[in-house]
C-alpha cells in the first residue's frame, strides 16, 4: 500500500525519494529486536455493542490514525525524550480514554490528505515527514462495527512540537510510558516505536527530529532518546563524522558555558527514507 505524499514524502519502506544513498551509513549497534506481533487481542465488547449477526451485516469502516513523534525535555532530567500527542475521546466507545489523533476517512480525502488534515485539526502541526506505517484491521478493534485503520506516522522538530496546540483533550505523553489507550492504539504505538528504532540504523529519519543545523551531541541525543539507552560519545562522534550525509558549517552553537560546538547540516536534497511508489 503506497502513495506519493503531497507534503514531500512518499509512503512505504526503504530509502526516501529524491535523496542519494549515504556512502557510509552510520552503524549503531542495536540489540536484536523481534517484530512485535501485529495480530492484536480482541477488544472486550461493552454493553450495547453490535452482536455477531449485526457486525457481519455491516460493511467495514475505514479510518485514519497518526502517530506523531517529537523530542521534548524530560521533566526529571531535562534530557530529550520521545513524546507523542494523544486525544481524549469525547464519545463512545471508550469515552474519556486517550487515543491517537485520527478519524473516519471521507469520500473527499486521499489517505495522505486525511492524515494531514487530522494532524492539523487536533494539534495544529504540519510535519515534513508523514509516512504510511501499517494497516490494522482486527475483527473486534471497535465494539460497534469492524474498523480498518490506515496508520500514518510523523516526525516533528522540538521547536514545532513546542508550538503544537494543547487543550484539556489534547496532551503530549512520553512514548515509552503509556499504559492503556482506547481501541488497540497502545499496540499501534509499540509497533511504531519498533519501526523507528530499527530505522535509526539507516537513512535520514533521525534528522527529522532536529533543526536545519545541529551539533553532533544533539544527533547523539536523538539516538539515545529513541533507542532508550546511552551511546558511547567518542565512538558515535567518530562514526558520524565519517558518514557522507552531513557536513560541517562555519557556525557554532552559542550560549553555553564551555567552548561552543560546531554546527553541522544534513546534505541530502530532501529528507527521505521511503522509495517512490
TrEMBL record:
Keywords: Hydrolase. Residues 61-197 form the Nudix hydrolase domain. It holds the Pfam family WHD_NrtR. InterPro entries: NUDIX_hydrolase-like_dom_sf, NUDIX_hydrolase_dom, WH-like_DNA-bd_sf, WH_DNA-bd_sf, WHD_NrtR. Residues 254-277 are annotated as: Disordered. One of its GO terms (molecular function) is hydrolase activity. This is NUDIX hydrolase.
